[in-house]
Amino acid sequence: MTSGQQLLQKLASRTENDSYRQEHWEGSFADYLDIVRTSPKVTRSAWQRLYDMIMQEGTYELEGTREKQIRYRFFDDPHNGGQDAIFGLTRTLMELVNVFMSAALKYGAERRVLLLHGPVGSSKSTIARLLKRGLERYSRTEEGAMYSFGWKEADGSVTWDPMNGDPLQLIPGPHRAGLCEELNAAHSDPDYEIEIVGDICPLSRFYFQERMREHNGDWTKVLESVVIRRVVLSEQDRVGIGTFQPKDEKNQDSTELTGDINYRKIAEYGSESDPRAFNFDGEFNVANRGLIEFIEVLKLDVAFLYDLLGASQEHKIKPKKFAQTDIDTVIIGHTNEPEFRKLQSNEFMEALRDRTIKIDVPYVTKLSEEIRIYEKDYNQRRVRGKHIAPHTLETAAMWAVLTRLEEPKHHGLTVLQKLKLYNGKSLPGFTADNVKQLRRDAKGEGMHGISPRFVQDKISNALVVNSQSTNLNPFMVLNEMEEGLKHHSLIPSEEVREYYRHLISMVKEEYTDLVKNEVQRAIAADEEALTRLCSNYIDNVKAYTQKEKVKNKFTGQDEEPDERLMRSIEERIDIPESRKDDFRREIMNYIGALALDGKTFNYRTNERLQKALEMKLFEDQKDTIKLTSLVSNVVDAETQEKIDIVKSRLIRNYGYDEESATDVLQYVASIFARGDAKNES
Q1: 96 neighbors 127 (Cβ within 8 angstroms)
Q2: SS3 632
Q3: Which end of the chain, N or C, is more open, meaning fewer C-beta atoms within 10 Å of its C-beta?
Q4: From the centroid of its chain, how far is CA 674?
């Protein structure tokens, strides 16, 4: 048995020790200049570092989209197993990264507050969290390395710069241009130019001036008493990442942003204006050279907003009793629609509006992406001991997306059909341009509706309420969501509540059609029977198009093509009588084209024909299987054997287990028993 000490030694990693030493590197100012020559990007601004961090993870182009859409792998959260992955929202993320690029290139966006605006639960906080965690991780890598400085004291201790300033800011103004020219000539990165912007904080300025007096104005001697260290960003340690959340008006104090006087040290240093008696620990101070997140930024008191304006436009803050202090930080706030409307209507907020770049973060409106949100939390790895039946998460996602879509203005198009078009399905009479126009006509789509949080809560409830069942099926979840609508506080009116109930009914109907189709295909999944039926159909079509007769395999007699057989198949896919000749010629031309390429025809290569054959075979076989007997208590052995075959196909081909396959068969059987089955189109 492994002892505790052996276990610790086993877990200990030499790589981790090396990494620790790199992250805690210390050296002289001269050493730092050597680092800058080799790796000039250590002097990047906060915006540049943030943009490079995202781009380092790489990009890929989304397939199946007419417009070029770039996806940034960073937002797939690859380092955390996709736990905070952002699904959908590709356009939003492209817009966001474009702002980062503009700021990195110093085109003006670096002097703005970035405002993520959208409904509750639309991933605003997740985006901010990804950026913060990403910066923490990036600062630990060689590519993301950054450095700060401290002052060596007589007793050997070091007083570190409280705002983790850039060491190059220690260079006096008159000498900066010359140093930058030397460094830029020496480094090997032609795409990056070193420049020194801003000044050190009041405390470091105090130490610098004090030591200038000691060395009779020789600033190079002052730099010899400076210690350089590697800085690793950390929200928990309040290094380079700040988070500010508004409190009630009585408890709000702007010193939380810019720092406050340390009254215990006034007696030691004798003055409130001595920087050694000041705590540079406000959120702006600690977020210097990194990122600061403002939660519900528009709920800030006006006094805070003035600090925000200076920090964004001028890159300066005003600590109490001190001159304006330079900061370099990315400012990201997020807010919802009601608060944003207040901002728009408040004429006193014009200055803030003018300094804000708003990025809309809507709900997902593509079904496949919404499904991925729920699959992340509800899968066989996370939900143990309970099988999630096929279409359970799909129906929940379908309802959520439907609540976010606007009723289409196009005559004859339903909101469900619109959902399918958005999801990449094709409908007769609709092109990709039509779908783009639908999106343009509904500019507010995704900014209202049901949030993923509500759906996740109801899926969780359904798992708990139905704890005795080994399965979670769509009706369990849909019923929970319908019940939850009664008490949903964010629904604006009873009219909207009733409309959401209507959408649940619509989803139930769609689910019914889905499972009926699956059961039909499972019943008709007899490969030999399908091949025979297809061969018979093709023989008759060939004879019909070439005006020949068909040899009857049993009698050996030549007969006219079987029109009844051909039409029974073609009607399954809505081929009208007037179009039957065209369709049959298309089939023969398709077979001929395959033959020219040396390929053999298989019904599976033609999706419409396969569907027609399966539906025809289902109609022929459903009575022999006696599916309706499932709802009775007596099933004969022969029928049970056939039902077991269908059930095994559902399990093998569609992801059911024994219980869910039995449930769905009984559900579809009850529909046929009521006699209200309808043909699939």
Answers
A1: yes
A2: coil
A3: N
A4: 43
